[in-house]
Automatic annotation (TrEMBL):
PANTHER family: ENDO/EXONUCLEASE/PHOSPHATASE DOMAIN-CONTAINING PROTEIN, ENDONUCLEASE_EXONUCLEASE_PHOSPHATASE DOMAIN-CONTAINING PROTEIN. GO terms for molecular function: catalytic activity. Residues 76-190 form the Endonuclease/exonuclease/phosphatase domain. It comes from Pararge aegeria aegeria. It comes from the Eukaryota. Gene3D superfamilies: Endonuclease/exonuclease/phosphatase. InterPro entries: Endo/exonu/phosph_ase_sf, Endo/exonuclease/phosphatase, RdDP_mobile_element. It holds the Pfam family Exo_endo_phos_2. This is Jg1323 protein. The gene is jg1323.
């Protein structure tokens, strides 16, 4: 997490993951594609930012003597590989795998192969065969000779087993370097950047962008009251829509002044809830011990680093256990379930490990849309003409302020529609502004005019648990409408509910909303 927060990589290749196939693993903001071993040892994985489009690459069948996973993204094929016990029999399988990947390629992994060509102190037989294979497949080695692994005091420090390979077209564009700290591993992280590859930035656009629980509602309501006097008169159809647009602008303008905005925080992974300053101090202490050993690889410095690392692990285990116990003791029957589950997820920092093999939504999105709405609808001429004649029926009477007041009493904020206006923007208005909204609603119902924003919805597909992410039937649609329109729907629903209990009928020209 430290590395991700500091460097914000678009793609991570991880060797020796030590995950069993059914284990849960998650890094917030990243999709994870893995190749696990049944016994939980070895393993390789690729983490890729969810803002990037990617497709999993199917690899040829190979033995379980190595783990490999590949994706295609940014017009590059990325392969993550881990070979725990290299031997000459693997060369033909590696050739089959590397040859199957579309060019240009980027190969990252722990080959456990020593060769002076990439920085090791000696050459072994497997590494020599690898060099020949790389020459045959026209693959470049990006390593600059720097050691990639921290060794024991009595070992030769020139040890490079983690290789970064690429196609010739990427070699001149690539920048390769080793980070100075292992962060608890015995391998140094490798930082690789490729020029002329633009990484799309995921811009946060939350539906509810305001911190409504920290709003200055009295000041907000007074600001709206000062501006509603500038609203145009609703004398004709055009002015009615202008009135609506002006009211929306007034609500947003006043909110920007008196309701703080949310911070997105998409580029930062939060620490777990049990993390405190003592943990941070211990991290720095371990880093200092590792730096001392790197400068002078003596037995004393190595033992000091091991002691510090063990102390760090014990502290984190104790903090996590204490934090969980404290959290459980703080719960009571009145604790909101949303808070409880949100905190549990932060403790676990894990969800189902099954990420889709592709982020290409076009595979299922069109079929999903067809389940929501038909491909075509009748033209306006096919519908019977509507007449808005005066009516004496009580159902058609203009809505009163008391009806609006009853509706607003029961509303709680939820995700708004396209206009971004939550219920609380109307609930916390003064009477003057509420009357302005009510007058507008009554004019809409009197004339039959509907603003265009009320005719559209935001549809969010929510994947059902343990369902195929590439199947359109695996998603449940959530529709978000304008809250200004939904309040009007509540008014109509309440009136039909009250009057129907008395009369058990509705007038012929009434329109039912469900």
């Amino acid at each position: 997490m430290f590395l991700i927060n500091e460097h914000k990589p678009a793609i991570l290749a991880i060797s020796e993951t030590w995950l069993v196939p059914d284990s849960r693993f998650r890094v917030p903001g990243y999709a994870c594609l893995r190749d696990d071993r049944d016994d939980g040892y070895a393993g390789s994985a690729i983490l890729i930012k969810r803002s990037l489009a990617y497709t999993s690459i199917s690899l040829p069948l190979h033995s379980r003597q190595f783990n490999a996973v590949a994706v295609r993204s940014l017009n590059i094929s990325i392969l993550s590989i881990y070979i725990p016990h290299p031997n000459s029999s693997l060369i033909s399988e590696l050739k089959s795998v590397l040859s199957s990947i579309p060019s240009p390629v980027l190969v990252l992994g722990d080959f456990n192969a020593h060769h002076t060509f990439w920085g090791s102190h000696s050459c072994d037989g497997f590494a020599t065969l690898l060099v020949d294979l790389f020459d045959e497949l026209n693959i470049c080695v990006l390593n600059d000779g720097t050691s990639t692994r921290r060794v024991y005091p009595n070992q030769n420090p020139r040890t490079a087993v983690d290789l970064s390979l690429c196609s010739p077209s990427l070699a001149s564009l690539s920048s390769w370097s080793i980070l100075p700290s292992t962060h608890g591993s015995d391998h140094y992280p490798i930082l690789l950047s490729i020029a002329q590859r633009s990484i799309p930035v995921a811009k946060a656009n939350p539906l509810l962008k305001y911190k409504v629980n920290r709003a200055n509602w009295p000041a907000y309501a007074d600001s709206v009251d000062c501006l509603v006097d500038t609203l145009p008169k609703m004398s004709d159809d055009e002015n009615i829509l202008l009135y609506y647009d002006s009211l929306v602008r007034i609500l947003k303008f006043s909110a920007d002044l008196h309701v703080p905005l949310k911070k997105t925080g998409l580029d930062f992974i939060m620490s777990p809830p049990w993390w405190d300053n003592e943990c941070t101090v211990m991290v720095n202490k371990r880093r200092k011990a590792e730096n001392s050993y790197s400068l002078l690889m003596s037995r004393e410095n190595f033992l000091e680093y091991q002691r510090t690392d063990a102390e760090y692990k014990r502290l984190l285990s104790r903090k996590k256990k204490h934090g969980w116990t404290k959290f459980c003791e703080s719960l009571d029957p009145r604790s909101p379930s949303s808070f409880v589950w949100a905190r549990i997820k932060r403790f676990r920092c894990s969800v189902s490990s099954s990420d889709p093999t592709s982020s290409d939504e076009s595979i299922w999105l069109d079929a999903f849309a067809d389940t929501l709405a038909p491909p075509s609808v009748p033209t306006k001429d096919c519908f019977p003409s509507s007449s808005f004649l005066p009516s004496t029926d009580s159902l058609d009477a203009p809505f009163s302020y008391s009806e609006l007041h009853c509706v607003l009493l029961d509303l709680k904020d939820s995700s708004p529609g396209e206009d971004g206006i939550p219920y609380s923007f109307l609930v916390n208005l003064n009477d003057k502004a509420k009357h302005s909204y009510l007058d507008m609603v009554n004019r809409f119902l009197e004339t039959g005019i509907v603003p265009d924003p009320w005719k559209s919805q935001i549809i969010i597909p929510i994947r059902k648990p343990r369902k195929d992410p590439l199947d359109c039937n695996s998603y449940r649609p959530i529709a978000l409408s304008s809250t200004l329109a939904k309040i009007m729907e509540h008014l109509i629903k309440n009136r039909f509910g009250v009057d129907n209990r008395k009369q058990r009928f509705a007038c012929q020209d009434s329109v039912w909303l469900q």
